[in-house]
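== Sequence, structure tokens ==
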Amino acid sequence: MVSAQASTYNHYTPFTECTVSVPDVVFDAGTNGTAYVISTNKTRAEANITGTLTETYYEYVLNITNLSSSINYTVKLENASITGISRLTNFTAYFHDVTTSKQVEISNGAVTQSSGPGYSLAASTIIYLSIAIKVSSSGDSTVDLRLHVAKSGTTSPEIIQPIRINVN
């Protein structure tokens, strides 16, 4: 006859609060539309903008800041997903500071540019996300973008940060 014995242990350990490190490239709400930074470390953002039947340009939707005083970065946007695309006559996302760089474009309900070229984000500087928008009808559209951040001179992203744009 074989017998077995089992013991049950309670390994409950309370969660401790962790400090969230802030990476070098972070989002802050801009002054156009309504932008929210929705993560503690400022690496995820959402913006609500109003689409109109005539083209509207939101020049400062988000501020993108390089907190490092010594590292330059290259950033670019990529389209991740879209809902309600058919009503978007124009949706163009740009970076700008001194120069402008078109990153993502939707024209007449179709994606015509899904990602942009690298854009320089020098140490201790801010660039801005701008949106040009025109809709053909009322409704809701959502454009999910990814911000790729890489140290200048490298090609692989160091971090990818999500941005959601709600077009009402």
Remarks:
- DSSP finds no helices and twelve strands in the chain.
